[in-house]
């Protein structure tokens, strides 16, 4: 797999604010349709030129293929909304955010406020992620 060029990575870092937006299931149902990718779809082959949002489904919380799809879409330069929905738990929020998702629809029994609190526990990370691939130590040296 080809990685993002440094120029594309810089563009992603400037364009994307990776704060995670919480969307209610009602808002999600009433929103205009985004491009829905099946869990087994190849994110490298998806044409997303005119798309504003891509919806990635978690059929079970133990199925992590949507994490990989989001990561690949960001590395390919998609700057629109990538939304996680389905069996999404607050336990997954940090990984969801670091994989490149920008919005999330939690499972109905999950507490949004508790999820936001969990996200606030981590101000920075040592490793790179979908949007900021350079590790912390490399940023310090630059």
What does the main sheet amount to? Answer: 5 strands, parallel
Helix content: 25-40%
How big is the Rg?
A: 15 Å
Taking pLDDT < 50 over at least 5 consecutive residues as the criterion, the unreliable ranges are: 1-15
Trace the largest sheet across and list its strands.
1-5-4-3-2
Q: What gap, in angstroms, lies between the N and C termini?
A: 26 Å
Order of helices and strands: HEHEEHEHEHH
Structural class: alpha/beta
Would you tell me the overall average pLDDT? Answer: 82
Global outline: globular
Q: What share of residues are in beta strands?
A: 5-15%
The counted number of beta strands is 5
Number of helices: 6
Note down, in words, how this protein is organized.
- By secondary structure, this protein is of the alpha/beta class.
- 34% of the residues lie in helices and 13% in strands.
- It has 6 helices and 5 strands, in the order αβαββαβαβαα.
- Strands 1-5-4-3-2 form a 5-stranded parallel sheet, covered by helices on one side.
- Helix 4 (93-99) links the parallel strand 4 and strand 5.
- Helix 3 runs parallel beside helix 4 (93-99).
- The longest helix has 11 residues, at 65-75.
């Amino acid at each position: 797999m080809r990685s993002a060029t440094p120029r594309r990575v810089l563009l992603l870092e400037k364009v994307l604010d990776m704060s995670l937006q919480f969307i209610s299931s009602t808002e999600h149902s009433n929103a205009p349709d985004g491009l829905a990718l099946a869990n087994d779809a190849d994110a490298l082959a998806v044409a997303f030129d005119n798309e504003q949002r891509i919806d990635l489904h978690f059929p079970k919380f133990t199925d992590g293929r949507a994490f990989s799809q989001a990561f690949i879409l960001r590395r390919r330069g998609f700057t629109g909304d990538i939304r996680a929905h389905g069996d999404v738990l607050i336990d997954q929020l940090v990984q969801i955010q670091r994989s490149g998702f920008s919005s999330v629809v939690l499972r109905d029994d999950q507490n949004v406020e508790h999820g936001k609190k969990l996200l606030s526990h981590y101000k920075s990370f040592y490793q790179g992620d979908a949007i900021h691939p350079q590790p912390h130590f490399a940023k310090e040296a630059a």
